[in-house]
């Protein structure tokens, strides 16, 4: 067995003059010196002052021709044998890949058979006409292909991860919407239950009163009838006794007796007064509030389950300087004092308006606005196109990209092509604004009574935002979060 010292001496003999390491893929140039293929390629990449002169040997400085260096298979075999000896002589060294058939280190790759070869395999008859390359040279184009595949796979993986992220976010939104709808169903049915209990108490109390009034009139009727029967019974008894007497006694005061009997008229009292009878007949009308409430309940429940509650917050970048926004951006108040707001292209500078932070390009959405208006104040609610004019005067009407209603003390107007004053049962304090982007509906409803206010029909092509405007000292609104 070779000693470690002799192996080290052999290794020194096959070192590369450039890297001072054991030759890897040795090649020989014109002067006969051997170098690692990689080291020589790197050496040739160094710029030469006079590019017309041929490169020189790194060791002896003799010129050699580019492309005239050739693989030194014999030296490669020697290097392989030395490496094997070193592995044997050095305890604990890891054995490199070797040919299973010949026990030689694998240096080459046959591109025709796609086989890894040692020096002995390369010289075999079946590979002499094949394209044989060093392992690294053969692996280079495959590394490039692998790199391209990796880039494509990573890109597709990133796209899938993006889809996963978007869909997970969408699922979370849907779960949140379902939870909101569940809470809405519980809340609405609890409200209905309380209302039904109250209505039941009212109707039962009214029926109890009717029952008492009927019994009272029954007792009064009984007393009256008994009195009449007693009076008539007394007259009948008197006449029967008169008729049994003698002619002289019969004729005594006969005219007065007959007059009393003939002029006596029977009073025919009613057991139930006409007024009480009318109350009984009108009792079904007492259920009309219940019918209206049930109708409103079903309409409201159906509406709120169909539309998604929108989380609306005000965008301070669009707010007119006379609007004071709360820290949570859910409330706004009008002030004649201008705020120190930096000017930007998004901010309204003439109309005292503000947009919501987020807009919509699809779907059905609803939000509720609480309004507090002093005398002389007004509030404008609706939606506005993303392209709404921000500077100068803005006409708040559909052809300018605004679909809104204006509420003031005592009246409500729809800001259509021509403002239309609306007739409502009561002045809304809470307004529900609903948007159906695909159908192009913007609907306003009194959130407290469910009374319809107005509906715009549009054809949306851009993103639309919840829109709000205020005027008048002390005027304010807040958003239900």
UniProtKB/TrEMBL annotation:
PROSITE patterns for the chain: B302_SPRY (PS50188), ZF_BBOX (PS50119), ZF_RING_1 (PS00518), ZF_RING_2 (PS50089)
InterPro entries named among the record's database cross-references: B30.2/SPRY (IPR001870), B30.2/SPRY_sf (IPR043136), Butyrophylin_SPRY (IPR003879), ConA-like_dom_sf (IPR013320), PRY (IPR006574), SPRY_dom (IPR003877), TRIM/RBCC (IPR050143), Znf_B-box (IPR000315)
Molecular function per GO: zinc ion binding
CDD domains hit by this protein: Bbox2_TRIM10-like, SPRY_PRY_TRIM10
Gene Ontology cellular component terms for the protein in this record: cytoplasm
Domain RING-type: 16-61
Coiled coil, from the record: 143-170
Subcellular localization(s) per the UniProt record: Cytoplasm
Protein keywords: Coiled coil, Cytoplasm, Metal-binding, Zinc, Zinc-finger
Alphabetical list of Gene3D superfamilies matching this protein: 2.60.120.920, Classic Zinc Finger (3.30.160.60), Zinc/RING finger domain, C3HC4 (zinc finger) (3.30.40.10)
Residue ranges occupied by any B30.2/SPRY domain in the UniProt entry: 292-481
Pfam families (UniProt xref): PRY, SPRY, zf-B_box, zf-C3HC4
Domain (B box-type) ranges: 94-135
GO biological process, alphabetically ordered: innate immune response
Family in the record: Belongs to the TRIM/RBCC family.
Protein's UniProt name: Tripartite motif-containing protein 10
Species of the source: Erinaceus europaeus (Western European hedgehog)
